[in-house]
Amino acid sequence: MAIGTLQDAFIDELRDSYDSEKQLIKALKKMAKAAKDDDLRNAFETHLEETQGQVERLEQVFGLLDEKVKGKHCDGIAGIIEEGSSVMEEDFDDATMNACLIASGQRAEHYEMAAYGTLVAWARVLGHDDAADLLQQTLDEEKAADKKLSALAEGGINDDAAGPGTDDDDDDEMSEDEPPARSKPTKVATPRKSNGAPARTARARS
Ligand code: FE
Ligand code: ZN
Ligand code: FE
Predict the structure, then answer these.
(1) Which of 47, 56, 107, 187 is most buried, by the most CB atoms less than 10 A from its CB?
(2) Ligand 3 centroid vs 139 CA: distance in angstroms?
(3) pTM of this prediction exceeds 0.85
(4) How far is the CA of 189 from the centre of ligand 2 (A)?
């Protein structure tokens, strides 16, 4: 058997990603079910549909390259999904579960971004420009999915998970005294000056 080339490695990585997307279709269904927030559930469901399209896009790429459509078990994403499922089995409150689902979702997106970044670069250098364009579309979707999850986390889900009185934002000095919505004992609301936020001490009194 001849020594393998970058072309062989490229086909191998395509098969790895093909398998990875199929694993993620199952995982995203579970994550959407586990989400306790409508926007988060929508984000997972939207990315699930995109992922089905990504599987088809990879089938197109195999076609362009005259290669058999075939997956090769992706150990990396299997590990990330495995970690995500153990988190889903934990007994977290709803808000914390949402934050944890985002955390595992973003691990998966970053793994995929790394894989597709390589695939696009290798497709280009090997002269497979049509394949590269298709793979770039998927890379863009993975990046957008990651950004969407960041926006949801930073747009309220992390604050909800941290609970009342733990908001680290700059604009919370007049925080409304919400009743504790969580089962944990409420901490005495000591002002947290030692959180390393220099903007606060530098700010002029109004
Ligand atoms: Fe994907
Ligand atoms: Zn892999
Ligand atoms: Fe993805």
Answers:
(1) 47
(2) 9
(3) no
(4) 46
